[in-house]
Amino acid sequence: MIKNVLIVNNDLGELQILDHFLGSQSGFLKIFTAVSHREGLQKMEKEEIDLVVVKIDRFEFGVARFISHCSKKRVGLKIIVLAGTQVPFFASIKKNPDVIVLELLADTNMLTSRVLTELAIEPGGFMQGVNLSSFLQMMELDNTSCLLKIEVKQAYGFLWIKNGMLVAAEQGNLKGKEAVLKMISWETATVYVNYAPFTRENEFAARLMPLILEGNRLTDDFEKRMIDKRESARYDLFLAIELFWGDRKYHCLLRDISMHGAYIEIEQKIERNEDIVLILASALLQVSCSVKGKIVYLAEKGAGVQFFLENSEQEQVIQMLIDSSRKVRGMKAVEALANKPCLGK
């Protein structure tokens, strides 16, 4: 499942680099940051931390105490210390069996490898825009054993698969068959693969195909009931766009779109009810336009935007983007089935 990593570094620039770098390595990691030992201990009081990364580049009286407190918080908690060989207590901190000492940031790949190893994560890559039904069929045909994290805009869940058989599932408060059917109803998703052996007990042993068929049937029935209630249909679309908020410019990812609004993923913090401008541009379609909007709701990784369309040109561009989404729906899943980039175990 998700592993929580705490990074402690008093250099804010390095902290942000480590946060972004480690967070991008696996969908099974959640990164927490702190700029001081005190803030780090406060984070550990609030969150269940699975691993700590702390940088030491000079003598600090509180370091040994911080490491001691971390060890007491959770027995066996691994602490990766990034330290130069000239640090006075370099030898002493190595005596702690739960401490792993690496030499500063000479090799970020080594740090990533050690973090994933200690947390029993064996990443098998990820794919975006996947049709989950097609992907699960591939899992069953290949007799694959892995843990899958299935993620969409505002939700995620987990599937434990052993030799192509589904043995456990969780999505929010749902478990078992209900969780599986919920995730199958997600039209497209981002799928992260973890090949590390798992000890999850078999909650049920079910072939995937009957569940896929039942999930697709329930999804079709739901869409038929909802189609008359929607003001405008939403279409999945992966498109890099620009967002202007006051005098600030941000790059973000558009995840779905309708004639009345969109859902975007953005790394920067943004406030609800703020007025923004989006630049919707597609090099493939050779179209672009600017659209005024308002942030109407916030999610963990993004925000919902309401459009305020002012002319027919904007409507035409959005309609072209919607039409392109209709045409390519399912193509990424078909390509994934053909290439199988993250399988083979």
Describe this structure in words.
With 345 residues, the protein is of the alpha+beta class. It folds into 3 domains: 116 residues, 3-Layer(aba) Sandwich (Rossmann fold), CATH 3.40.50; 102 residues, no CATH class; 93 residues, predicted glycosyltransferase like domains (Thrombin, subunit H), CATH 2.40.10. 32% of the residues lie in helices and 34% in strands. The chain has 10 helices and 17 strands. The strands form 3 sheets. A 6-stranded antiparallel beta sheet has the order 6-11-7-8-9-10. It has a 6-stranded antiparallel β-barrel with strand order 12-13-14-17-16-15. The C terminus is likely disordered.
The rough form would be described as flat
Architecture of the largest domain, CATH level 2? 3-Layer(aba) Sandwich
Number of strands: 17
Biggest sheet: strand arrangement: 6-11-7-8-9-10
Give me the number of helical elements. 10
Largest sheet: 6 strands, antiparallel
Count of domains: 3
| pLDDT < 50 runs, ≥5 residues | 222-230, 330-345
Distance between the termini: 20 Å
What does the average pLDDT come to? 80
